[in-house]
Amino acid sequence: MTTIRLVDIRKIGLGVPEPSRDDLLNVGRDIVDSFSSTGFAYLSNHGISQQLQDYTFTVAKGFFDLDTEQKLAYERFVRTGYTGYTPIAGDNSTNATDSAAGVTDLKECFDLRCLEDACPDDVAPQLGPQLRRIGTACRQLSERLLAALDAALGSGQLLTSCHRRQLQPGGWTVLRLLHYPAAGGAAAGRCQTRCGAHTDFSTLTLLFQHGVGGLQVEMSDGRWISAEPIPGTILVNIGDVIEVMTSGRLRATNHRVLLPTSEPARGTARQSMAFFVQPDQGTTVAPLDGDPRYQPIDFNSFIQDKFASVYPTYKESDWKC
Ligand SMILES: O=C(O)CCC(=O)C(=O)O
């Protein structure tokens, strides 16, 4: 049975001041090996402390527990720009078939695009500082992972050099807090999923799950396997960018979070956090081997199209970069 591999990245984790070239290559190969079967890997000994993760989830819950009007004052792309709050059913990962059937995602989110972006300091004074702390750690870890992948894929410094602006002006990388409210009884209404099946439009995604599982990953034969949280690990998966770069040798895998059908799981809220590592503005992503089956992607246009497909009310002109 296919399972998602656990890769020990101690030798390139944040506990190491500067990983050696050999360690980057060896760990990178292990990660690529896992990606080639499932598109995902669990990373252990990564160096992002549990305390930092746990406190981020505590602060996030404090924000999501606020009144809807207080959160909507920071609504993403409406009151703010790329950083901000997305209400329930405001961003639907759900595929076209489900979307035609009126299925929406029962989730709310808060995204941070730049470390210096304004956060809801008036209603959640801890949120901004905490997001900046964990965002900085995620950025440092993703730089190590990109260097390891560059070594393993033989792409020189390509991945490293087109992700230099993570969480800075000119970057598309984003840190997202997710909250899936309890859906006991009729609370779910027309929302019938937590997060619809999708591939990420990122290069890589670091995913932190706070205790409650539910994430599923689609295998190449159409079976869905669980990606339950494993204490002490971070899940990493590849997105559409790596699929194009590797001409499909590594595939961005569909994943989803279903709404549990039975109690008490259905009545239990779920929290997660995703760090979407995305190329800097102005990047064109092309297959490393020039495979003509994969057209180069202008990432600026690509991400705008993706926003338009997941945000029902998105218009590029609504916000400034
Ligand atoms: O919450 C999760 O576990 C998955 C979230 C996810 O796939 C996404 O936001 O793209």
Automatic annotation (TrEMBL):
PROSITE patterns, A to Z: FE2OG_OXY (PS51471)
GO molecular function, one term: metal ion binding
Name of the molecule in the record: UPF0676 protein
Keywords: Iron, Metal-binding, Oxidoreductase
Residue ranges of domain Fe2OG dioxygenase in the record: 171-279
Family: Belongs to the iron/ascorbate-dependent oxidoreductase family.
Coiled coil: none
Pfam families for the chain: 2OG-FeII_Oxy, DIOX_N
Keyword Iron in record: yes
Superkingdom to which the source organism belongs: Eukaryota
Organism, as annotated: Amphibalanus amphitrite
